[in-house]
Amino acid sequence: MGSIAGIAVDLDWSLLIIFALITGVLAVGLFPAWHPEWPVALYWLAGLTAAVLFLASVLAHEFSHALVGRLRGISIRHITLFVFGGMAHMESEPRQWRDELYMSIAGPLASLAIGIGCLILARLLVGPIEIDPAAPEVFLAQLGLTPSVLLWLGQINIILAVFNMVPGFPLDGGRVLRALLWGMTGDLRRATRWASAGGQMFAWILISLGIAMAIGVRVPVFGAGLLPGVWLMFIGWFLNNAALTSYRQLLTRDALESVPVARLMTTSLTSVAEDLPVSELVERHLLHSEQRAYPVEQHAGGPVTGLVTLQDVRLLPREGWARTRVAEIMTPIDRLVTITPQEDALEALELLGRGNLNQVPVMEQGRVLGMVRREDILRWLSIHGDTRRDH
Length: 391
Ligand SMILES: [Zn+2]
Hints:
The protein has 391 residues and is α+β, with helices and mostly antiparallel strands. Helices cover 58% and strands 13% of the residues. The chain folds into three domains: 2-165, no CATH class; 188-257; 262-384, CBS-domain (Roll), CATH 3.10.580.10. The strands form three sheets. A four-stranded mixed sheet has the order 1-2-3-4. It has a four-stranded mixed sheet with strand order 5-6-7-8.
């Protein structure tokens, strides 16, 4: 979409749903209830404004995570806004519990600050009107457009802060809990398991409440009804998945962190010479082998000068295959992403993910020792990953 302070912002298509839903609920339900005398156009104007400002405040929440993360040395390249709010994608997990704590709590604190700020601003704009607790509608009816939007925005941001602080991983509150458990026990894996169990428990509570609401039970705070009930079940299901996934990811990390790349790499590689025509590369090698990336040597047996992949060939129009040499389409060695045999499989996987690559050459002192491919890592995981049960 765009980028702010070097952090890219993606808007997921599902955001349109939440945007339409908020605008609709406010324009048809809330604002008409507060202001029966307003013209219809004003309801929609207020609804749209509120929905836009709401998304902006979700973005501010995510940016607080990202900026505090960056201060603590955790790089965050992009933020996604989607139907359940936002997500700041970390390139690496925090190395210390304090980093995780500060980063996780920054988002809810931002939401809380925005929420309180909106309420104060609304109060200042309205001036000295008495609120009669017995008849709040009298007070609400006196609010103009801006204070009405601010009042809703303030409330929703405070609700957002509270919801996110529920101690279930991977919600912010679950991350805060995990950081504290991590600090207390010094054991990230156990801390994650407990925080993830908290997340699943909370998810099942939401699902149960959703079912109860859908069959007509009135739940305090949440209300009743089929649609809100299904919505709550959906959020619960999503959280349950997220809690399970994040715990499995940690097990994967654990399994990969202890394996040097040297144990996973493919070593029986065919190399090609720089002056080989691309058509020959296809005929002699790509069509007859599983190997998709070929080290390119200056001459047969000479020093490696680059890497040519199936992807490079695909980018070249077929008419040019016969008169183009591999040297012209290869990635030169100084621009290659490489890894050393001593680095671990997790670093290799992160490297593959970051560059959206299928393989990384393993190099030492200018020599290509082998290639570590995505499927090598996945195969290793399928053999070793599940057997390492957690106790
Ligand atoms: Zn957050």
